[in-house]
Specification:
The chain is an alpha+beta fold and about 270 residues long. It has 6 helices and 12 strands. It has 2 domains: about 110 residues, Nuclear Transport Factor 2, Chain: A (Roll), CATH 3.10.450; about 110 residues, Nuclear Transport Factor 2, Chain: A (Roll), CATH 3.10.450.50. The longest helix is centred in the N-terminal third of the chain and has 14 residues.
């Protein structure tokens, strides 16, 4: 069941905050969104940076103006509900440089005590006019965080730079969709997934470590916030990202969708 909105907010704000976030900005309901977030809230965006408290209304107005100028639209593709947070993923399309650009976007809304709400968005800012500067870690690492076996096996194999081990975590037909929106599939004929990881780890083999930092898990999908260590790109350490793991009936991974800087978030 979806969460009901508060204080008579318009229909665009009904539901969970991660779902309502872009809808409110795109519909001009940024003031209502600011009221719902409340005075203790904080927001962090890879293009606009962080904002807290009294700065949020002006911040949301700036984001809404940017989206309106770019004739943006947002299509939701996934929703995950955790114990203290909800995560919405989708594709943000906008006009950029005379063409229509679509990028994968993830929104995390965390509910803390005393109505302290945190919104974090993840997408490739460079695709929509931002810089390639490495984003600072948004959360501390949590090495003790428990994840499902398939997710843990994937993280471990990535850390080792083990191409065979990573690919074995996916069922046949399983796929990775990277932060630029490109897909890589495990199948018996053309295993682009294997090529993807082989290129990612480079030569000599070099692992990529994701430090677990935040999680929402509904039994089918695990939305994992992480910080990056050991990426093939230069100066990528610490760059945060969001990964959506979807499990198949086999217990292996059906899909892995990535959100963040495409130059440092698992792009071969």
């Amino acid at each position: 069941m979806r969460e009901s909105s508060e204080h008579g907010d318009p229909s665009s704000l009904h539901g969970w905050l991660s779902e309502a976030y872009f809808g409110a900005l795109l519909s001009g309901a940024n003031e209502q969104l600011g009221r719902r977030l409340g005075p203790r809230a904080s927001v962090d965006d890879p293009l606009f940076g962080p904002a807290t408290g009294d700065d949020i209304p002006r911040y949301l107005a700036s984001v809404a103006t940017w989206l309106l100028a770019a004739k943006a639209s947002f299509d939701e593709t996934a929703f995950t509900l955790g114990a203290d947070r909800d995560v919405t993923a989708g594709r943000l399309a906008m006009d950029r440089g005379g063409e229509r650009v679509a990028i994968p976007v993830g929104v995390v809304a965390v509910r803390r005590p005393a109505r302290e709400i945190v919104i974090r968005t993840y997408f490739d800012a460079g695709r929509v006019g931002g810089t390639r500067a490495v984003r600072k870690p948004l959360l501390p690492a949590d090495a003790d965080m428990t994840v499902r076996p398939a997710v843990g096996a994937h993280l471990s194999a990535m850390d080792r730079g083990d191409v065979d081990g990573v690919v074995a975590c996916f069922e046949i037909g399983g796929r990775v969709e990277d932060a630029a929106g490109r897909a890589y599939v495990r199948d018996s004929n053309s295993n682009s997934l294997r090529d993807y990881y082989r290129s990612l780890f480079r030569t000599p083999p070099r692992g990529v470590t994701w430090h677990k930092a935040g999680r929402a898990d509904d039994g089918r999908t695990c939305a994992l916030e992480y910080t990056l260590d050991g990426a093939a790109s230069v100066n990528a350490d610490g760059n945060p990202g969001l990964a959506l793991y979807e499990l198949g009936e086999s217990g292996l991974l059906r899909s892995l969708r990535l959100y963040g800087d495409a130059d440092t978030t698992m792009t071969a």
